[in-house]
Structures are given as C-alpha cells and as structure tokens.
Amino acid sequence: MDTSTRLPGHGLLSEGKPHEQGGTSGRYERIFTAPFEKSGHGACSCGEASPVLESDSARRKWHRAHKDEIRAAAGAEPAP
Questions:
Q1: pTM, 2 dp
Q2: Tens-digit pLDDT profile for residues 52-62
Q3: Where exactly are the structural domains of the chain?
Q4: Which single residue of 28, 31, 66, 77 has CA 20 to 30 Å from 18?
Q5: Residue 16: how many CA atoms within 13 Å on its side-chain side?
C-alpha cells in the first residue's frame, strides 16, 4: 500500500498561506498580510481553491480532503 500523501498535479501553494483571486487573470495569488491576519483561500496547483478559511492549518486540512476526493474519483484509497 502506498502511504504517500503526495498526488501529482495537486500541491498546496505556499504551504497553505492565504490567497485571493487576483486581477484579470482570475488566478489565485498569495496575500501578504500582517502576521495576525490569516484569512484567505487555500489554493491547489490544479487550480481548485478553498472557501475563505481562517488559518494555515485549516487550508492544509482542506487540501488533504481535496486530494482524498481526487483519489476517490480515481478509485484509489485515501491517504493515511
């Protein structure tokens, strides 16, 4: 059984730091804020984005669930 949590094409951008949808490109871009201001979207390298979440750990949790959904759609088991 593969115990890797990595999934090709699905990397959490900036280790879960907050992002916002930017400019005319529509791409999610990193928000550089004061240390106590943590809310923002999580962004996956596949282009999927989380709802606005209040912490880096919440965005990492969202990304784990996102990858598990991709694995389930492909018929693979979720990561441990």
A1: 0.78
A2: 999 999 999 99
A3: 13-74
A4: 77
A5: 13
